[in-house]
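Write out the 3D structure for:
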Amino acid sequence: MHNSLRFAIAALVFPSTALANDGVAAVGIGGIVFGKTDAIAMKKEVLTISHDLVSVDYEFLNESANDVEETIVFPLPPYTAAKQMSEAYYGQPDGFSIRVDGKPVAFQSRLVARSPKGKDVTAQLRKLGLSNKEIAYTPSFARKSGKVAAFTEQQARQMIELGLLDKDSWDPSWEVEVNYVWTQKFPPNRIVRVHHDYQPFVAAGPGESAMNEEFEKKYCADQAYVDAYWRIVERKEGGFDVANVAYILTTGNTWKRGIEDFTLNIVKRKPDELVSLCFPGKAQKVDALTYRFHLSNFHPSKDLDVAFGNVADNESADGVMPRLPQETLSTTTTAHP
């Protein structure tokens, strides 16, 4: 069943945000390649998504008789390197960390730049003198942000010749893929608890503010969501903007039997926010802030997209999300067959 969580309205021109699920992988010359384990079971996953914070808790169990060591990858959905509306958390999640059984674990960041045709152009960009930071956070935005050096004319000319830079705007055409990688040992017959807790990163430009058939299909927006949208637009209260939180769920299938016990918490920021998503089952209202989905023996067939709809206001015109008191939140829910 599809679900639309109806909240009603609140804030800003907000870009997309993107997140992901842990998966078993092998790191080779060609990059991250996901495999599958027949030894390690994901007994439980609790995923909590809001604008401000993403929190993920896992419980894994090695059901074999021996120690198992796996390469674990937390992949982020790819995002465009072109100029963005917002500088907030651009490129990688702010404060990303991993804790295993309560203790911090070291990890590596693997970055890949891909051309519009999907070709890995990371080496070409590095050969032109771009650092990982400059690849991940476009220098075309540097004149405003000052976070990285602007392209030199020689770099720009070479990238234009390679089809990696727009000759008029100097906006990059490549997409960026970021993966966090670490090695994890799983002792036999013992639960291993993994925790991530971080602020989402800005993924792909302005939110999807237009209401159309494509939006309704992607987010399973029900009639109540659509009606609320048009009421806002007709009142001309400053425009309507949508933040998309994308989360890679399908990597959960790399674990033995998928995700045995899965909980998804959707948390909103204020009473009039609109939220819609496609997800099986029916959401349960936990409190004024939270709606919860719970599934057993979950084998995700698609990744998760959550649309948070808000009225744009002057306070958030720079695209940076204002901090709002969560105790003011409330919501209703509707399930679709």
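Residues 4-16, 202-207, 314-337 have pLDDT under 50 and may be disordered.
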